[in-house]
Specification:
The protein is α/β, with parallel strands linked by helices. The chain is built from eleven helices and nine strands.
């Protein structure tokens, strides 16, 4: 796939206007505080035998949006005592938390890791264990347009709330240094990582330390209106399919999306961040990644892969993850 988006010299300065609802902060503050009032976090950790001798793994359950149990894995080095710096990891579109041995890189490097399951997903590239009881209305196959009639019913409102709660769930573990936590994810996981960082900052009365940083690889759900006319690759193709049929719902659809768009959330996030981009990425086009990056309000760096698509840097980017975690967690 050749480069199809803006050239790199234009990408690095690409700063589109934000399509931002006036009540975005109020919406998220209300959503998070209502969920707190109605649904205590109720975190549990249950040790499991994975066959790995150097990593201790626990099955995690915490209460997510709407009171629904959300699953996860918690990994920590067997030979290190807490409190440990910790990485909260989010999974890409369609995937779940996977099998217990699939996300142990940071634990192998000496950090604890909480891997959040994706509600309603987990039948794509990784298995999952969390359902989603909140689906309403009609939508295109997939998750991008589920409940998109309003921000209150939208799928990504629920899973973004889960992502913020996953940070607090990790901090409840006795082995975690609650002052040394960063978030990480790619694609949909990148959207969740950015959302968790932003919502942690937006949320009043958290009473806990700020995050140490965010790893945001090839983020989905950024500059969504541009993505919808630039690529028909799924998941954005689901939005194209939906609007092809729901011709009278275009502006309402993008209004809902504006509450979760990474460009708007990036402007509210100030912790150190590392982004990455593949300049041949047809799934999350480079200009949409740079739109979020260039609006990001905190210290930031971008890792560029000129000859890669959505697979991004692969193992090379994992080396960058370890570097970034070492720099910001110790």
């Amino acid at each position: 796939m050749p480069h199809f988006d803006l050239p790199l010299d234009q990408l690095v300065t690409y700063l589109p206007d934000r399509e931002e609802p006036a009540d975005l902060d109020e919406f998220w503050h209300r959503t998070l505080t209502e969920q707190d009032a109605e649904h205590p976090l109720d975190v549990t950790f249950e040790r499991v035998d994975t066959g790995l001798t150097e990593i201790v793994t626990e099955d995690v359950t915490f209460t997510g949006f709407g009171g629904q149990p959300v699953k996860g894995w918690f990994h920590r080095p067997a030979r290190l005592e807490g409190p440990l710096p910790t990485v909260v990891t989010y999974i890409g579109y369609g995937g779940g938390r996977g099998l217990s041995h699939e996300s142990v890189l940071h634990a192998a490097a000496g950090h604890a890791t909480l891997v959040m399951d994706n509600r309603g997903q987990g039948s794509g590239h990784r298995v999952g264990a969390t359902g989603d009881a909140g689906l309403t209305g009609s939508h295109a196959a997939g998750f991008l347009t589920a409940g998109i009639e309003s921000p209150e019913t939208y799928f990504y409102t629920r899973i973004f709330t889960d992502a913020e709660r996953a940070v607090r769930a990790a901090r409840r573990h006795a082995a975690v240094d609650s002052s040394a936590v960063l978030v990480s994810g790619g694609s949909q996981g990148g959207a969740l990582s950015l959302a968790a960082a932003a919502l942690t900052e937006l949320r009043d009365g958290l009473g806990e330390p700020a995050l140490r940083g965010a790893i945001v690889d090839v983020p989905f759900l950024a500059h969504v209106r541009r993505a919808s006319v630039l690529t028909s690759a799924r998941p954005y193709g689901e939005l194209v399919e939906y609007l092809h049929t729901h011709r009278d719902s275009i502006e309402q659809t993008f209004r809902t999306l504006s509450y979760v768009d990474g460009v708007n959330l990036a402007a509210r996030t100030t912790v150190p961040a590392m982004f990455s981009v593949g300049l041949m990425d047809e799934i999350c086009p480079p200009s949409t990644v740079y739109a979020a990056y260039n609006h990001y309000a905190g210290p930031k760096e971008m890792v560029v892969y000129p000859y890669n698509g959505h697979e991004n840097g692969g193992a090379f980017q994992e080396v960058e993850h370890l570097r970034f975690a070492r720099e910001h967690l110790g």
